Amino acid sequence: MASNSTVRILDGNTFVVSEDTGDIEATPSEPTGLFSLDMRFLSKWVLTVNGERLNALSYDDLQYYEARFFLVPGMATHYIDAKLSIIRERAVGGSFRESLTILNHDEKAVDLEIRMDAGADFADLFQVKDEILNKKGETYAEAESDKLRLGYRRGNFRRETVISASRPARYDRNGFAWTLHLEPNEQWDAAIDVQTYAVGPGGRDLRMGLRAHGTERLALQHDLERWVAKAPKVNSEHGQVSSTYRRSLIDLAALRFSPLSLGGQTLPAAGLPWFMTMFGRDSILTCLQVLPFAPEMSKTTLRILAALQGTRFDDFRDEDPGRILHEMRYGETAAFEEQPHSPYYGSVDATPLFIVLLDEYEKWSGDVPLVMELERECRAALKWIDDYADLVGNGYIWYERRNNDTGLENQCWKDSWDSLSYSDGTLPPFPRATCEVQGYAYDAKMRAARLAREFWGDPGYADQLEREAADLKERFNRDWWVADGGYYALGLDPNGRQCDVLSSNIGHLLWSGIVQEDRAAQIAEHLVGPRLFSGWGVRTLAEGEVRYNPIGYHNGTIWPFDNSFIAWGLRRYGFAEEAATIASGILDAARYFDGRLPEAFGGYQRELTKFPVEYPTACSPQAWSTGAPLLLIRTMLGLEPHEGHLAVDPRLPLGMGRIEVLDIPGRWGRVDAFARGRLELEHQPTS
């Protein structure tokens, strides 16, 4: 994994990860380089002056799509009396462009050899992630008089990186160079274009490279300005809330991904570096988080997921009729079916969550045409829940991969290999069922019943769905309740034995509404109790469980997205103080990450570490972590669509002060919401 000193810029599916000098020297296992369409188009990009590497004085990541590096020749020392300054400025947008500026501060003229070593291994992102670079095709490098062409071909699958410069350069197979003579105080500038090309089956050109630099950069700048201006404004006496909100808005803009089939429409990609593509679960949950702030993302996400809904039985892709995809990839391993992600359907929660998002989106937007348009897909998703997901025949959603070579073992959101266990630490057999997915199924049926009754003109179907949901709730509260612990089991094995560990998943049950009212208080008490709540947030697995590890991926870390839905669930059952406690912890943690919450951080007790400890390979930015502060703001203000209007029922944490959210969009037009919390003395505003 790249170190924390790396600089990252991105624009949807295209991103560049480099050292703080701007250089790139990737190894097969490091996600550094220029990536697009799930492949690495540059693995080497090293600038030297007279054969010397450069030392970074500072760098600025100006916007999510651009960065600037200030450099001098030679190695770092306590003091550098440099006679040269080098500025590298780059922007990404489809591909990327880099501008070089060299300034001679000497009193005499200098002769310089400026060289950029360039190379591309065309590693598939899966190969980098798995630390296996096993290329079956042919790489090539062709130096022409005005460009360097780096390429990879394997049958009719071809990728190319084409490098050219605004000033004439000498190109060879390993890079390009200029010989300069600079007078005292003279400045030299050059611009380098790096364009990516992808040719698919039949020679079809899937993607062209970067537009003209000025046009692209200006377009990105104007797009970001429009994006921020269109979103509601958040003002707060607790300044961190406003800055975290703005950071989240900008990161959400950066993560917008336009699949090849969408013609410019965008949905949220899951996260950098590993998941810069379309997901089912991740994209849906992010859309739910950001509905009050960026509702248009939901419409795009619902449409593209509906268009790619499963239609057949395909064991390689774990596809069934009606199933919503898990992940879509465009790289070499997917193209040659070495991975099933073209698309892959191995998740059990995306399908019920698809229905949940459609209903929630309609409540906010009043977009009845979309509800009518997606009726067939909703009915197919509900049929999948009943007919194809119940692998055991007892009315629950189960999973077991049919692709035993490259399919996912665990197909819930906690998808690491050891995330589901009994209290003795052993792992259950397959098929497996997790508790939160049953809650999603209950919620999906209740929401689909509303859609059927109000829009599809099928009250009989609505009645049927409500009966099925009531039956599911009754059975679930019987079979999943851990009586001696006072909580719901994380999972069941095919014999009905409970995976009786205490986990954060119980908070999702509150959000879905499947929890019996007389048990909700016990669940709330666990969620903010010392075994689950660290002071920063709710741990994925409770302290004291055999597999608990504060830096275990799904066995003790804190996931901001997880906490945002837990807080929302607590509000649903009336536990506003507990929801505010969780919101306060997560928003406090954001301060230590400059407002950008990572995928996960350590579950250590707050008093022990004094600051949140980042999980070592966490994605950042990541979509549903970016969405977490937005959902927490919604939860603290109690923003809920109600009978065509926006209801506001605020409950702020101690010390939060006043929060206002202005111009909240919805079927009601645009409205404002205000709330005032109880200020602690140190948070009192000064005159």
Automatic annotation (TrEMBL):
InterPro entries: 6-hairpin_glycosidase_sf, 6hp_glycosidase-like_sf, GDE_N_bis, MGH1-like_GH. Residues 10-191 form the Putative glycogen debranching enzyme N-terminal domain. Coiled coil: none annotated. Residues 351-596 form the Mannosylglycerate hydrolase MGH1-like glycoside hydrolase domain. This is Glycogen debranching N-terminal domain-containing protein. It comes from Micromonospora halotolerans.
